[in-house]
# Entry
Amino acid sequence: DVQISGYIIDDESWTQIENSIARSPGHCMTMGTASTMGAIAETLGMTLPGASSIPAVLSEHSRMATSVGRRIVEMAWQDLKPSDILTADSFDNAITASMAIGGSTNAIVHVIAMAGRAGVKVDLKRFDDISRRTPVIANVRPSGKSYLMEDFYNAGGLKALLWQLRDRLHLDCATVTGKTLGENVAGSEVIDEDVILPLDKALSEEGGTFVLTGNLAPNGCVVKPAAADNRLMQHTGPAVVFENYPDLKARLNRDDLEVTPDSVLVLKNAGPLGGPGFPEWGMLPIPNKLLQQGVRDMVRISDARMSGTSYGMCILHVSPESHVGGPLAFVQDGDLIELDVPARRLQLHVSEEELERRRANWTPPEIHYPRGYGQLFSQHVTQAHEGCDFDFLHHGGDTPEPAIH
# Structure
């Protein structure tokens, strides 16, 4: 049996809950990573208008697939290529949409990587700049409180949201239709203003994801404040450190773990190289002893990612990661960590002299893979703030077609 908020749920009831979480085929019904990336692809101009928010079971999917098949053949004859569509302005549009929908933090890594392969420079500063001027207007979980993706579609979908944002977008960007983004979304109507909000009734005045910096994350980290408890926006607390994921699993729920609601949970070695592979461990579970006290959110910091469906005051993508000797590697139990989300700051209250002493005594972790693909990955994958992609895919110009002899 499982106890939740004082109620006992038997095994049969728990199984019914598990079997009912996802009602149909398709991706997560919230504004998770899949929903976010679909919206980004459409805003970039890389899908037909309206393609990103169709619920999985609707016959509209089949009609859209037919239209896509026809259009892609036409594009081949017209020689319309992704390089004609993916520009700096189109990536700005994509970031704006991601901020307005309260999208997944994973989008930051994906967009930086995609832009790099398209020969466009996008960095965390660009996300921060756009976040500061873009309100969250999609009232869809987890940033919103009431609605799911089906409701978003019925309210007008992404086209309606983009038309709401038209003054913040580059409407002259090309798309796969052969028309501009502005032409694709012009006049799209919001059917339910409780789902897609007017700009003057936004969930928050700034975007769904904030970029933080400080001596604990010199190259940046990210947080989704729209999905976190407001009381934690400014918080200072003592660190409770887990060296890796097995350590977290082994000790998190032990009775002798010294942790309070004011503690800051810290997970190391969960980044691109430390995981390896940048796993979604960033929504660290709240210890059972605190759950039993009614605690539902607390500050958690890691160099990991988290699912787009996750929520809470989770500081993610800390860069450089601990595995390569980033400052996160030197955090110890009891160190005071200050989080100031409005000021975009994450600070470790340890002197530079003490940090240097810890750095000098630090032993780098062992290499996960001495050969093969794992070794290639460890030698060439970039850090989170650079897109966690192979560095050699972001260098130079176009690759020519091979000569045929």
User: Anything to note?
Assistant: The two ends are 70 Å apart (CA to CA). The mean pLDDT is 95.
